[in-house]
């Protein structure tokens, strides 16, 4: 998964400016992001403070790590079952 170059505090700051009435194009150009990214952030994180946003990002990273662990364990289980069936 790609690591964001923006900290939760920076994202929250950009969203507050956007909510304050600044145009999406102006903010996007100023921060080096696309307008689609800005609208996606607003859809996902609207109304959150920086600390809440940081916690959400940490939970998303942990969830991705746990999904990878589960996929690896499921694959190992399939291989073990295949080996056991082959020996019988």
UniProtKB/TrEMBL annotation:
Source superkingdom: Bacteria
Keywords: Coiled coil
Organism per entry: Marnyiella aurantia
Gene Ontology terms: biological process: DNA transposition
Protein's recorded name: Transposase
Pfam families according to UniProt: HTH_Tnp_1 (PF01527)
Coiled-coil intervals, chain numbering: 49-76
GO MF entry, a single one: transposase activity
Keyword Coiled coil included in the entry's annotation: yes
Classification via InterPro entries: Homeodomain-like_sf, Transposase_8, Transposase_8_domain
